[in-house]
């Protein structure tokens, strides 16, 4: 959850500014492992709560590749099986497109924004490619927590 990491960075900024307000904080240490474990546990709890609420509401979750059919009633087909209901929600999810090394040399050395949550330690240096809000948030978080971070933005053009 990016919000947990953002809040972590906010705390780091407060600690950084404590001396300006007369507080002495001689030995404050940050543990990436601790926040990762607590964040991951928090996300698991949230997922369990959401799934429990869906079950309490008697909503069926059907996982797979789905598409609407031409049937007269609202119907979807998921992996060859049809489902009809008065209300159907298709949560598409998504996965980032990762270029090959032949398209962009060294691409395999990088990770997607999903990989940020798998980091086992704070990188000493980081380069974030892109200028969307997630890229900017991750660059700010990593930088505030102590990673020497750079944000790469492709040259824009007026559309």
Automatic annotation (TrEMBL):
Keywords from the named record: Disulfide bond, Oxidoreductase, Redox-active center
Domain FAD/NAD(P)-binding per the UniProt entry, residue ranges: 31-159
GO process annotations (BP): cell redox homeostasis; cellular response to oxidative stress; glutathione metabolic process
GO molecular function: flavin adenine dinucleotide binding; glutathione-disulfide reductase (NADPH) activity
GO cellular-component term (any): cytosol
Recorded superkingdom: Eukaryota
Family from the record: Belongs to the class-I pyridine nucleotide-disulfide oxidoreductase family.
Record protein name field: GSHR protein
